[in-house]
């Protein structure tokens, strides 16, 4: 008998695929369903984080759009979509804080 939890790839692998293929991802964070455009996977204090644009947020203008940093442990129901995205032209893949270590980026 197969256990779906065992066959489900780890969340970080899903984000690596989403970043590599530039695919939007669905997730729940603090009880809110979001569609994320993942730009970077990194560690901070030995915890995994993703820098991603929350496409479900209402931005006042396209110029205001920017990535937020989400702790992977706080994300649930993570799933890849088949919808692609273009990385933000203003995205800077340098560490957000001193000590952050980049693992994968667009």
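Q: What amino acid sequence fits the structure above?
A:
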């Amino acid at each position: 008998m197969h256990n779906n939890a065992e066959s489900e790839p780890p969340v970080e692998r899903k984000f690596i695929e989403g970043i590599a293929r530039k695919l939007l991802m669905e997730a729940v964070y603090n009880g809110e369903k979001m569609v994320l455009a993942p730009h970077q996977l990194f560690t901070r204090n030995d915890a995994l984080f993703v820098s991603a644009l929350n496409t479900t947020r209402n931005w006042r203008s396209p110029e205001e759009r920017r990535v937020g940093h989400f702790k992977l442990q706080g994300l649930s129901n993570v799933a890849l979509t088949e919808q692609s995205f273009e990385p933000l032209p203003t995205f800077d893949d340098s560490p957000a804080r001193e000590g952050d270590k980049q693992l994968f980026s667009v």
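Q: And what stands out in the fold?
A: The chain has one domain: 4-88+96-105.
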